[in-house]
């Protein structure tokens, strides 16, 4: 996708602070963090959001959650707590239309979110 900022980051055309990558996904620091720890887990495949997923993507979502858990363990927040969030369309505040999962930690995360 030519106009997609996350595809450009994945291609290396736009810089980002990478914390993890493998053949299916990358994890980068969010440019506008809302918690002491805030990374985005992004599949290399351009999927718009949850509405665009197919059965073929089922293993990918599992990998993303396991990568997020591994990063949370590295941060040492696994016992204290962390959150994985994925926004879909306007009411949820999705601003980048390439599916991604926010991994947040390092402070008390209120519930319900605003
Ligand atoms: P959404 O609101 O779509 O769930 O989340 C998009 C996230 O991407 C936001 O938290 C925003 O700060 C982050 N973001 C947008 N553009 C860039 C960028 O160019 N680089 C990085 N690292 N994060 C970005
Ligand atoms: Zn994309």
From TrEMBL:
SUPFAM superfamilies: HIT-like (SSF54197). PANTHER family: HISTIDINE TRIAD HIT PROTEIN. It comes from the Bacteria. This is Histidine triad nucleotide-binding protein. It comes from Geobacter benzoatilyticus. Residues 5-114 form the HIT domain. Pfam families: HIT (PF01230). InterPro entries: Histidine_triad_CS, Histidine_triad_HIT, HIT-like, HIT-like_sf.
């Amino acid at each position: 996708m030519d106009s997609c900022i996350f595809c450009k980051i994945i291609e290396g055309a736009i810089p980002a602070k990478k914390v993890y990558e493998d053949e299916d996904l990358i994890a980068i620091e969010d440019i506008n963090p809302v918690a002491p720890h805030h990374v985005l887990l992004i599949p290399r495949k351009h999927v718009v959001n949850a509405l665009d997923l197919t059965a073929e993507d089922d293993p990918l979502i599992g990998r993303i959650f396991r990568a997020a858990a591994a990063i949370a363990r590295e941060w040492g927040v696994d016992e204290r707590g962390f959150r994985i969030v994925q926004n879909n369309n306007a009411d949820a505040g999705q601003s980048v239309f390439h599916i991604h999962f926010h991994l947040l930690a390092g402070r008390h995360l209120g519930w319900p979110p605003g």
